[in-house]
């Protein structure tokens, strides 16, 4: 696979290469994340509700783990159709409602944010376009400032959404270790761009489906990579927790369905390592990132909440290159548009 600056034939490739610089602004500390965190630290919330679809929803999963592990607050996922389809206003008085959106233009996210605000929640929008309808509907806005993104398969705004959430929690919780991990992240993102995961994508060539697995802080990344495989390579892909994969989904994993396993160095690492060992024992093709069972190129372990963010970049690059190898346009997946307007 060519280096990160060579042969950038698609917007997806160019925007992936822009991630380290885009993330650096958020990783530096201070700014909107620190200002909003100071406001949140002065209030007490019974719970947090996170709202987002697709890649933004995956950023919300990463944010959920950060909030629950660093702040001890329970986090619930919002179902916008309760508002748009069933016409019910949620009873969220006193809660923090966080909506994550790249474009900020999906009508269901706008409606859900307005309903949460009407229901008594403090609303926060993490969004790339600070002038968007979602941002206008929220009390507080944390702008990504990632710049324009033209590829339908979002990369730059996904990574910056994860980084923005981590920066917010680091400041809100006063987590020095997380803040230090974020300070190192731009360099790790730049180095991750150079990692070659084409061996994993080569195994997808004849596969009828694929699986991606991990746990904890890595779960949002797991689901995001599975989505990118599905939309960009047109290959059914499923992202499961390593704990969930041992249950019903295990029956559908076979030698014909490659598994990508992601492992960050935290208390859940052994569970991922054990799953990788068991799958390989059963003849399953597993490409692992991180830990003693790792087969894909990776960096030395960094902060366990930041490493899953960096793991997105070699995956994005490999998927984009594989799409072009197959004659597919990674910037225009079939049947999709840049802004998905759901209700």
UniProtKB/TrEMBL annotation:
Q: Where are the transmembrane segments?
A: none
This protein's UniProt keywords: Aminotransferase, Repeat, Transferase
Q: Which domain of life is it from?
A: Bacteria
The terms under GO molecular function for this entry are: transaminase activity
**Record's PROSITE patterns?**
SIS
Alphabetized InterPro entries for the sequence: GlmS/AgaS_SIS (IPR035466), GlmS/FrlB_SIS (IPR035490), SIS_dom (IPR001347), SIS_dom_sf (IPR046348)
| Domain (SIS): residue spans on this chain | 36-178, 200-343
Spell out the Gene3D superfamilies in the cross-references: Glucose-6-phosphate isomerase like protein, domain 1 (3.40.50.10490)
What's the protein called, per UniProt? Glutamine--fructose-6-phosphate aminotransferase [isomerizing]
Q: Which organism is it from?
A: Methylobacterium crusticola
